[in-house]
Amino acid sequence: MPTAWRITTTSDATRAFSGDGARLYGGRWNSKGVRVVYLADYVSAAALEQLVQVGSIRALPVYHLFAVTLPADAVQPVDLQTLPPSWHAPNRDPMVQAVGDGWVASGESLILRIPSAIVPHHANYLLNPGHPDFSMLIIAPPESIALDPLRRRIVKAAAHS
Q1: What integer pLDDT is reported at residue 121 of this predicted model?
Q2: Are 29 and 97 in contact (CB under 8 A)?
Q3: 111: Cβ–Cβ under 8 A, 6 or more apart, which residues?
Q4: Closest to 108 (Cα-Cα) out of 74, 135, 82, 69
Q5: How far apart are CA 31 and CA 15, in angstroms?
Q6: Strand 75-77 vs strand 111-115: parallel, antiparallel, or unpaired?
Q7: Whether 142 contacts 66, CB under 8 Å
Q8: Taking a C-beta distance cutoff of 8 angstroms, is the pair 125, 41 a contact?
Q9: Phi/psi at 129 (nearest 5 deg)?
Q10: What integer pLDDT is reported at residue 54 of this predicted model?
Q11: What is the pLDDT of residues 131-146, one digit of tens each?
């Protein structure tokens, strides 16, 4: 059974698996109004996804890291051939959001495996918090994490290169 990772701010930790953030703001793979939860295949990929969302090193608070064990038979891979060529563009594409929205509406699976637009050759996962199999997930208690000063300098340098 694969493990996926979710990083949230401390203030959002109690709602980490509600899908409310994605519902309120939308995301690459969902429109506003559609509840999903985003996870990554590695802790480092989850951290990069979070950094992209925050947009500023100075804005980085302490985070909570969740390890989530995914039932392998509940994971449906997205059909890469059906994605528009611009699926990984910085701006949100309504055609890409329609893929996630349609998946949620269909109720086909608990988890949709999607490619990472930020880290090539990595995957992200969408969870449908309204799916009847949601209780099959094994969510470990959160671990507090923070970027130490060295990591901040590395990330800051990478952001300016």
Answers
A1: 86
A2: yes
A3: 70, 74, 75, 76, 125, 126, 127, 128
A4: 74
A5: 19
A6: parallel
A7: yes
A8: yes
A9: -65, -15
A10: 65
A11: 999 999 999 999 988 7
Structure tokens at 138: 């094994």
Distance between CA atoms of 98 and 44, rounded to whole angstroms? Answer: 27
Nearest in space to 113 (alpha carbons), one of 99, 92, 95: 99
pTM of the prediction?
0.87
User: What's the pLDDT tens digit per position in 52-110?
Assistant: 776 654 555 678 999 999 998 999 999 999 898 889 888 889 999 999 999 999 999 99
Task: Give me the DSSP letters along the chain.
Answer: --EEEEEEEGGGGGGTTT-HHHHHH-BTTB-TT---EEEESSHHHHHHHHHHHH--GGG---EEEEEEEPPGGGEEE--GGGS-TTTTSSS--HHHHHHHHHHHHHT--SEEEEE-SSSTT-EEEEE-TTSTTGGG-EEPPPEEE---HHHHHHHHHHHT-
- Of 41, 104, 38, the closest CA to residue 69 belongs to 41
CA distances from 88 to 91, 96, 150 (A): 8, 9, 29
Token reading at 86: 């611009």
Two structure tokens written together for 41: 């295949």
